[in-house]
Amino acid sequence: MASNVQGKMLLVAAFDFGTTFSGYAFSLRDDPNKIQTNWNWYAGGGASLKTPTSVLLNQKGEFHSFGFEAEDYYTYLAEDGAHDDWRLFRRFKMVLHSSEHLMKDVTVEDDCGKQMEAFPLFVMSIEYLKKHLLTPVVNLNVGINEADIVYVLTIPVIWHDNAKRFMRDAAVEAGIDTSRLKLALEPECASIWRENTDTKNDVTVKEHTIWWSISDIVGDNSGDASKPNCAFNTTRPASGGTISLTPANSFLILS
C-alpha cells in the first residue's frame, strides 16, 4: 500500500515540528530539486522560514492562532490586561522527551501554569501547518489536491516508541491519511543520505538556507531509519542550526 502511494504522489511535504520553532518545505515529483519553503512568517519586520511552536486558545478553550500570530496576539491582550482565560502554550513538545511511560492524557502547562492535556495541542499544531502548507500548494496552480501529498514528520532518535506513536496519532487526528504519513528518524537518515551522496552535489548558502541536491529519498511509514531512503535532520556546527531534508528527491528546512 505504501509503495503504491509513493508511486502516485505528486508532492512531498515535510513538517519540522520543533520544540521552539516549526516550519515546512515541499517539492513536486516533476521537479524534485526545486525545494519550496514558506516565507510568509514575519518577525520583527523580517521574513522567517519558521514560526514559534506556540498555540493560543481563546476564552472558550478553542484554537485561535499559532506561531508569531499567537505570540503577538497574546502580548496585545496582556498589554491591555485582557488576557484572562486566554491560554498560550509554548515548548510543549518537550513532554514527549520526558517519560518512556508516556500516555495520551499527559498534561502540559500554559503560560500561567494551568494544566491541559498535551495531545490536542499537537493536533491543533499539525492541523495549522497542514492548512498553511495547502495555501502555497494551491497557488502553484498545477492541479494538486490534498490527496496527492505525502507528509513526512522528522522525529528525534531518542524518543521512545510511545512518543513516536503519540506524534503519529496526533497527525492522523489532524486529518493526515495514515497511508500518506511517514516518520523519519533524524540522525540515522542523515547518515544514510551522506552515504548515498557524492561530491558532485552542489551546496549553496543563501540567506542562511542551504540547498542540497539528493536523489530518491523517500521514507517508509514505519519510521525505521535503518532502511535506506529516509528524510533526515543533521546538525551544522558552523551555524548551530538543524537541517531537515525530506523526500521527493530533496528539500530542506534550516532551523
Overall CATH class:
Alpha Beta
Mean pLDDT: 76
Number of domains: 1
Contiguous helical run count: 5
Alpha-beta content class:
alpha+beta
Principal-axis shape equals: globular
Q: Superfamily at the CATH H level? A: ATPase, nucleotide binding domain
> How many E strands?
18
- How helix-rich are the residues, as a percent range? 10-25%
Q: How would you characterize the largest beta sheet?
A: 6 strands, mixed
- Strand proportion, as a percent range, falls in 25-35%
Key attributes of the depicted protein:
three-stranded antiparallel beta sheet, 255 residues, alpha+beta, six-stranded mixed beta sheet, 18 strands
Report what the structure shows.
It is a single chain. The chain is an alpha+beta fold. It has a single domain, classed as 2-Layer Sandwich (Nucleotidyltransferase, domain 5), CATH 3.30.420. It is built from five helices and 18 strands. It has helices spanning 2-8, 68-79, 119-139, 161-173, 186-195; strands spanning 11-17, 21-28, 31-37, 41-43, 46-48, 51-52, 54-57, 63-66, 87-90, 107-109, 115-117, 149-155, 181-185, 203-206, 209-212, 232-236, 241-245, 252-254. The strands form six sheets. Strands 1, 2, 3, 6, 12 and 13 form a six-stranded mixed sheet that branches. The chain is globular. The two termini are 33 Å apart. Residues 199-255 have low confidence and may be disordered.
